[in-house]
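pinning this so it doesn't scroll away 📌
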Amino acid sequence: MKFFICSLVALMWCSLCGAHNVLLPAYGERCFFETLSKNDELAVSFQFGDRAPDSTEQLKGDFIMYSSDRRDALRTFRDVSHGDVRLRVPHGGKFEYCFVNINSGATTKDVTFNIEGTIFVDPNDPKSDSLDGAVKQLSRLTKELKNEQSYIVIRERTHRNTAESTNDRVKWWSVFQLGVVIASSLFQVYYLRRFFEVTSYV
């Protein structure tokens, strides 16, 4: 029985969750779509990052989720570094979501995002004490933990690059200060030697 439950959770994990990473073009956007039925739930968590290994800043971008006819924006995030969207669709159709970079010319900006599949049983419903409800609730919590770990990894990389850049600037500033002190000392020695120099006239 335990093997069956573990297999079911693993199968749901593989079929309902996908992690993706895409490079955003300068002044462009990348769009994806999901075909959903009525009352399906779509969850998208994302984070903007920088592919440059020596980057020290947290890049930002826009996220827009459109309705099935692409006339209305169901969810919009402007100038954010990360976000989490969970939406239960009121009708079936093809729902499109876009990561937008139209306000920036950065060529190394990318976005890491996770897609969670449909949930037919509300995992927060206290009455959903069936095996199906328990498995889906466990799957949801596991995916949330995975998304948080992915977010922490990217933030750690950005903070590490910032710390290394700061250390490098402090090092070169110290070298510059040492050079100024040495040059000032040499100038003072030269000036004092000339000041006390005895000059004789014949």
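📌 and the second one:
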Amino acid sequence: MRIDIGGGVRLFVDVEGPGLVPDGALMREKPTLICMHGGPGFDHAAFKPGFSCLADIAQIVYYDHRGHGRSDERPSSEWTLDTWADDVVRLSDALGLVKPIVLGQSFGGFVAQRYIARHPGHAAKVILSSTSHHMGMERKLAAFERRGGAKARELAEAFWSTPNPATWAAYWAGCRKLYNSTEPADPNAAARTRVREEILLHFVAGEKQRLQLLPGLARAQCPVLVLAGEEDPVCPPEDAREIFAALPPEWAQFKSFPGVGHGAWRDDPKAAYATLREFILS
């Protein structure tokens, strides 16, 4: 369904599980987990069906960022981290959600970090998964070279420094397989994803180049769990450790997964989902 979040902007939203469940003579309220997908330019499909295993402990809200996937198309002037971060609040207000748990994967983690900076008191908890706080070009290139050799470094450098349809196509064809350490459990998962390449290229050529998210993390006012795959080339674990160090120590938690790439639940679902369950229930 599409939800109007104000100003005529409609986001595609899918909700899994009830928020209220019978518990003896009472109705017990489960926490709501808002899942923010990666990209930019992709959609929420990568969370399904894996995140269904958390539906017994949380109501799960999946949505496509403004302009993405099945959400309404929007002008490029609205393709900014500030807008996407503010949309978390707009969507919560439209759905009547108070103190959600907000999870940002990869690019969704950029959005979640800006959301912490702009709305530090809004969430009950935040999860920053396989994400970065800056471009970190040299670190990224070194990681791709370790995993795929000189050719992978060349493709990554061409795309991240000069994003256009040709460098993106070559990079995705040659480097996508290096993001994870295992074969996809679902070979059709990528085919289900709707991609808006123009948003991807716009962001990587613009805001991504000057990304500096660490300063805003000091404003966090709720528990924040940082997840990192030790073999992630596109959001290297060193970035995650710097994110963790920038958070107020009383709120920060960190978990790394050895032998794991981008999105820990893809390579080690048992450990990753157990970590998420523990954090949601804590």
